[in-house]
Amino acid sequence: MALKEKYMEIAEKEVFQEIADSPTMKYYTNWKEFQKRLVAQDSRVYMELPDWIEELTDKVVVLSDEVLVRGVPRDYIEVHDGNYDVLKDIKVTGKMEYYNAARLTRAVTIRIPREASLNGLVLVSLGGDGYTGHHIHIELEPFASAEVILVDLGGVGDSSIKTLTIAVDMDSDSRLKFYSISLHEEAAVYSRRVYRLSARSRLELNTFYSSGPATRINEDVYLNGEYSEIEVNSSSLAGRNKWGDVLLNVRHRGERSKSYINGRGVVLEDGILTIRGIAIVEKSAEWSSSHVEVHVSAFGEQAKGNASPMLEIHTGNVEEAFHSASVSSLSEDELFYLGTRGLSKDEARELLVEGILHFSGVLERLGLSIETVLRGLNHE
Amino acid sequence: MQTALKVQNLKVRVGGKEILKGVDLELNYGEIHAVMGPNGSGKSTLAYTIMGREGYEIVEGDILFDGVSIKDLPADERALRGLFLGFQEPPSIPGVRFSTFLIAVINKRMGAPDLTTLKDPKKLREIYNLLNEVGLNRSVLSRELNVGFSGGEKKRSEMLQALLLDPKVIILDEPDSGLDVDGVRKIAEIIKELKAKGKAILLITHYARLFNFVEPDKVTVLVDGKVAATGGPELAHMIEEKGYQVVRQQ
Ligand SMILES: Nc1ncnc2c1ncn2[C@@H]1O[C@H](COP(=O)(O)OP(=O)(O)OP(=O)(O)O)[C@@H](O)[C@H]1O
Ligand SMILES: [Mg+2]
After folding, report:
1. In angstroms, what separates the C-alpha of A156 from chain B's closest C-alpha?
2. Percentage, residues of chain B above pLDDT 90
3. pLDDT by residue (tens digit) across A47-63?
């Protein structure tokens, strides 16, 4: 209890972020909205478990103010209450992460041994009408292999706020296919996900984020071991009144480690969306290769898109280093090209939006249509 | 032979400048009609105008497709009626995977309400076969449309679409540029196949290199936005030998 109070004290003193993001836009994250909602009471009403999850799997762990486990052997899972010390799993920085540590609602640890067959394991984090705080820790033992799906649902109402932290530890030679879908609805959601990869482990991360009025996602990948590999394919969306900030960070530490980061996003009406792809190659990471590509398409005169790549190399020898970033809308020659294929201007736009939303492959994997996903955007 | 496309005294202004200065041209079904001309003579402008690109203002003349004027139709309408343009430089569209794009254009033609889910699984088999035919690896399907495609891959992708969409009139704007000899031979094979199927083919090029593999039925030479000469394959070969000098002097 004392620990939690200490974290809250730190949270109150900490700032959201120290340095401004750009000369033109001070913060890419809607910190003001977070600030407004920090005082929310714990959620009393939670989102309902969507039907499509039932169709997807018989192995599911659902976090709300309680934890429901179905179809997963209990020896793989440890359920914790709000007193769990998140800081054991994640080194935190900034106000929101101390706040998360102080107010956490529920946490689970999932251990995946080599012999486990946990393909299609679905982890659901349900937001609610007030504050919700979840933490999930996944550990893969050496040579373990799994496919895990994370469903991160925001909440409704203008007090809805959620913090969700995820720590994934991959031991040597393990494999993880990680699909994640975030539908933040009306919630302000702060989510930091940390992945630590040991030698020869491989992570495939496919993500889909539909921003809320304030969405902040940090995907932080540490390629600690030699020959460790990460591939990220991500689709982001910010519609009317939504503001998303997505960071795809990779830090190369192991020799011959490989990263391939692809972020695509679309911003509509008066939405704001930033995608940052950042790769840092440390001195120890010789002969590693890194590829960072982010692109945001903006539709609507008031839509604001930002895309920025960053590549920092601190070693003499790299195998490959590529980065690019762009923001655009459909240009006249793209519209004409699609026109000559039989698509009207509206259809061309629809194709681009849908193309970006399908880019990560998450909707296909979950068997979801765009309509199902977008429905949430229209109920204001 | 039945006339597919008739371009009549076409004068076109682009960006306030007259680029086409009265072009006449007739294209029949089952025929390859080559349009040649030096850089900047207006070949692409002609192709764009036939397809209905915005900003390509027809100041005089008309374009008839199967006897009906199409000059006031938007590009997508013309495409759905059976016109196709293989681009000299197709634009890249990040975010849209090649497969997603192909599914959308197929669905549109089949009248499917939703653009992105493939309704007819047989089409996928057809796409695989066509990839094979044009010499593209299946992995291009997961790449973004024309993003990072090599010159050759772009040309092959344009040919694949000409085959997949089954149009009546096919305009190919320099389908051979940037290709190696094997690539040119492959493209020529496909053009012959399309001709055998009775398609009307307008083949734009400024080199006669392609004609070593596929003989045009007719040749029209554009110079400075005007038709400088018309003839048969022998005209192409003459230009190949002596350059555009020959027609300029006429
Ligand atoms: N948007 C534009 N505004 C002004 N001039 C233009 C525009 N587009 C094309 N032109 C001009 O029209 C002329 C014809 O261009 P076009 O691209 O049709 O030639 P082309 O015969 O296809 O040449 P190439 O063999 O190089 O492909 C050129 O002089 C070009 O500079
Ligand atoms: Mg041209």
Report:
1. 29
2. 82
3. 999 988 988 888 999 99
**Could you report the per-residue pLDDT of A112-146, keeping only the tens digit for each?**
999 888 888 999 999 999 999 999 999 999 999 99
Pair (B23, B113) in one structural domain: no
What's the gap in Å between B38 CA and the centre of ligand 1? 11
Q: Are residues B75 and B178 in the same domain?
A: yes
Give me ligand 1 centre to Cα B14, in Å: 9
Residue A302 and residue A295: Cα distance in Å, rounded?
18
* Residue contact A336–B48, C-beta within 8 A: yes
Question: Closest chain B residue to A297 measured between Cα atoms?
Answer: B95
Give the number of whichever ligand sits closest to the CA of residue B37. 1
Q: Is residue B154 part of a domain?
A: no
Q: Do B72 and B174 have their domain in common?
A: yes
Q: Quick one: B173 and B65 in the same domain?
A: yes
Name the closest residue on chain A to residue B165, using Cα atoms.
A341
B104 and B208 belong to one structural domain: no
Domain limits for position B72: 3-89+168-249
Kindly state whether residues B200 and B77 are assigned to the same domain: yes
Q: Name the minimum distance, in Å, from the CA of A334 to any CA of chain B.
A: 6
Q: Does A359 touch chain B (CB under 8 A)?
A: yes
**Mutate which of B56, B85, B96 to disrupt the A interface (most A C-beta within 10 Å)?**
B96
* Yes or no, beta carbons of A295 and B48 under 8 Å apart: no
Per residue, the 3-state secondary structure of chain B, as one string, reads CCEEEEEEEEEEEECCEEEEEEEEEEEECCCEEEEECCCCCCHHHHHHHHHCCCCEEEEEEEEEECCEECCCCCHHHHHHHCEEEECCCCCCEEEEEHHHHHHHHHHHHHCCCCCCCCCCCHHHHHHHHHHHHHCCCHHHHHCEECCCCCHHHHHHHHHHHHHHHCCCEEEEECCCCCCCHHHHHHHHHHHHHHHHCCCEEEEECCCCHHHHCCCCCEEEEEECCEEEEEECHHHHHHHHHHCCHHHHHC
Quick check: A176 pLDDT over 70?
Answer: yes
- Which candidate in A337, A357, A359, A372 is best for mutational testing of the B interface (most B CBs within 10 A)? A337
Same domain assignment for residues B83 and B111: no
Cα of B118 to nearest chain A Cα, Å: 12
Q: Say if B160 falls within a structural domain.
A: no
Q: What is the ipTM of this complex?
A: 0.96
User: What's the pLDDT tens digit per position in B64-87?
Assistant: 999 999 999 999 999 999 999 999
Question: Are B212 and B185 spatial neighbours (Cβ–Cβ below 8 Å)?
Answer: no
pLDDT score of B249 = 59
Per-residue pLDDT for A380 more than 60? Answer: no
Look up the pTM and report it: 0.89
Residues of A in contact with B85 (CB under 8 A): 340
Nearest CA residue ID for atom 25, ligand 1: B39
| A369 touches B at CB < 8 Å | yes
Nearest ligand 1 atom to the CA of B206 is 25
pLDDT level of residue A374 (50, 70, 90 thresholds) = confident
pLDDT tens profile B162-218:
999 999 999 999 999 888 888 999 999 999 999 999 999 999 998 888 998 999 999
Joined together, the tokens standing for residue A156 give 């409704």
